[in-house]
Write a structure and sequence with these properties.
The structure holds 2 protein chains of 2 kinds. In chain A, 77% of the residues lie in helices and 0% in strands. Chain A is built from 10 helices and no strands. Chain A has helices at 14-35, 37-42, 51-83, 88-103, 106-120, 128-154, 157-165, 170-200, 212-223, 226-255. In chain A, α3 runs antiparallel to α9 (212-223) and α6 (128-154) packs across α8. The two termini of chain A are 15 Å apart. By secondary structure, chain B is of the alpha/beta class. In chain B, 36% of the residues lie in helices and 23% in strands. Chain B contains 10 helices and 10 strands. In chain B, the strands form 2 sheets. In chain B, strands 6-7-8-3-9-10 form a 6-stranded mixed beta sheet, sandwiched between helices. Chain B has a 4-stranded antiparallel beta sheet with strand order 2-1-4-5, covered by helices on one side. The chains are: A mainly alpha, B alpha/beta. Chain A binds chain B through residues 156, 158-159, 161-170, 172, 176-177, 180-181, 184, 255, 257-258, and chain B through 81, 83, 102, 106-107, 109-114, 116, 118, 120-124, 133-134, 137-138, 166, 168, 179, 182-183, 186.
Chain lengths: 262, 274
């Protein structure tokens, strides 16, 4: 199911095609979120009569993914920079963050943010959705940090030497030379992380966020029909990840100036 | 330390006649030290790469630096814009001391162009963007002005038609010519060449050397680490020979390549010849 959209139309340039794919896949995602109650309502019971609940759950799942995904990429860039920093305390902080978030279960992190943080300080009291976003963002940020760090390390030293010898300062060297190349290398593992994030957002279920898995579970407990309910839930996840990989694939193609992708 | 090196005061007559032979206006440009290197030492671990090296490089002159691999010639070149640090001694380029002062260093590097063995073009940028990046960021040129200047320079190295391509679409020789144009776009006071033709197929060496010869004719100050003896003979005002971290010879090319008294240099030249 990969790259169905990005190979068409053949006559367009690579950049035009990837831009078009990004736009059309994003539009498709919005369309799915908006219109999903319609196909769901055609389905037999117990899906059809609970179409609105499934649709609401789907929207929450996508919201969780987008919010924590965006924050997670920013956190990942910052933590990766921290880990390659020449300033040792920054390396320690970033290293500690990655060590803790990668070394503990996401479920524990979700529960900790929602139940334990408010007990530490009332300022950390958040609603369920916010708490889930915070935990998911912190978690995916740690994995992103490693992906981006790998990208940063893969940029040849000669690139930085060339930039510096032209008189570019450190900031421009990073923004114009290092980061674009590092990001391109880090993109496939980043996409992996975000796809995992979309599925992991189901753990928000445990603190009472009514996302897709929670919605499915509620329908199952009222209808006692586990097979159709969880098949429908899984299919919706699959549709979401498929559309998402179309977008990420198009981004990858946009950066592929050397035409390495087939 | 370096018995073969003539005292510094003995250098002025060095390249005068070769330069006038190339037809450049010599008498109008009084030679002055653009770069001064004083008592510089460098270690890589236990290896003493440069031993108490002192010399200076004059504006408008072409100096070719020769030596066996490991003799410290690239290290010396890379110290001049602080791609390598020196352990002791003093380097002054265009009145700016080369040290860890970052603001001064950025300023200095804007005036000192460098061309690398591996080209080091930015692969994610088009040829045009490779050339315009530094002028736009450092000299704050607007895009239109930077593009116009870049196209002029690309025309000068014979690559105007390739402006919108990406580096991977070009041959090695073409990439190196873009790299030269990229350095020239900053209008540097001196250009450092670190084995610019060593990574090239033989048939591409000439196109790069031709561009470098053209540059030398314009009076550009050039320091060239190379194994191209023909280039040294024809273009250099001065040949520096490094041996085990010391300047073992410092002479005009006709003298250097002529009756060479130094046994090590004779051996080196004999090995290079074939």
């Amino acid at each position: 199911m990969d790259r169905v959209l990005s190979l068409w139309p053949a006559a367009w340039s690579r950049q035009q095609r990837s831009s078009a794919t990004m736009l059309s896949a994003s539009a498709l995602m919005l369309l799915i979120l908006w219109l999903i109650p319609i196909p769901l309502s055609w389905a037999p019971e117990p899906i059809g009569n609970n179409a609105q609940l499934f649709a609401e759950g789907t929207r929450v799942t996508v919201q969780l993914t987008i919010v924590s995904g965006v924050i997670g990429v920013v956190l990942g860039v910052l933590a990766a920079l921290g880990k390659v920093s020449r300033f040792a305390p920054l390396r320690w902080v970033a290293g500690f963050y990655v060590w803790v978030m990668r070394g503990t279960p996401l479920l524990v992190q979700v529960l900790f943010v929602y139940f334990a943080l408010p007990e530490i300080h009332p300022l950390f009291r958040m609603d369920e959705f916010t708490a889930a976003c915070v935990a998911l963002a912190l978690n995916v940020g740690a994995y992103n940090a490693e992906a981006i760090r790998a990208g940063l390390l893969a940029v040849p030293k000669g690139q930085i030497e060339a930039a510096r010898s032209l008189g570019l300062n450190r900031w421009y060297t990073f923004v114009d030379v290092t980061f674009p190349q590092a990001f391109k290398i880090a993109l496939p593992p980043l996409v992996n992380n975000v796809v995992a994030l979309l599925k992991d957002s189901s753990l928000a279920f445990t603190i009472g966020v009514v996302e897709l898995t929670n919605a499915g579970s509620q329908v199952k407990s009222t209808s006692f029909q586990a097979v159709p309910v969880f098949i429908a839930t899984a299919i919706i996840y699959l549709v979401l990840t498929t559309v998402m990989t179309q977008i990420s694939d198009a981004i990858e193609r946009r950066y592929d100036v050397e035409g390495k992708l087939r | 330390m370096n018995p073969a090196r003539p005292p510094q005061g003995a250098q002025p007559p060095l390249g005068g006649d070769t330069r006038s032979a190339r037809g450049a206006p010599v008498s109008a440009v009084p030679s002055s030290a653009l770069i001064t290197v004083e008592g510089v030492n460098k270690h890589f671990g236990p290896h003493h790469v440069l031993r108490d090296v002192s010399t200076h490089f004059d504006a408008g002159k072409v100096t070719v630096i020769l030596g066996a691999s490991g003799s410290g010639k690239s290290t010396l070149l890379r110290m001049l814009n602080r791609l390598e640090t020196h352990d002791s001694g003093r380097i002054v380029v265009d009145g700016i001391e080369v040290n860890d002062n970052h603001a001064a260093l950025d300023k200095l590097r804007a005036e000192v162009g460098m061309v690398f063995q591996q080209f080091n073009l930015f692969p994610h940028l088009s040829v045009l963007d490779n050339v315009t990046l530094a002028p736009r960021r450092v000299r704050k040129l607007d895009r239109a002005a930077a593009n116009a200047r870049a196209l002029e320079l690309l025309e000068r190295v014979g690559l105007q038609a390739h402006a919108n391509k990406h580096p991977f679409q070009l041959s090695g020789g073409q990439q190196q010519r873009v790299a030269i144009a990229r350095s020239l776009a900053m209008a540097p006071k001196v250009l450092l060449f670190d084995e610019p033709t060593s990574a090239l197929d033989p048939e591409m060496v000439k196109e790069v050397l031709d561009v470098m010869k053209g540059l030398a004719r314009t009076g550009m100050t050039m320091l060239v680490v190379t194994h191209e003896m023909g280039f040294a003979r024809e273009v250099a005002d001065r040949v520096l020979f490094l041996d085990k971290g010391c300047i073992a010879a410092d002479a005009p090319p006709e003298q250097f390549f002529g009756a060479q008294a130094n046994e090590r240099i004779r051996t080196f030249l004999g090995q290079i010849a074939h």
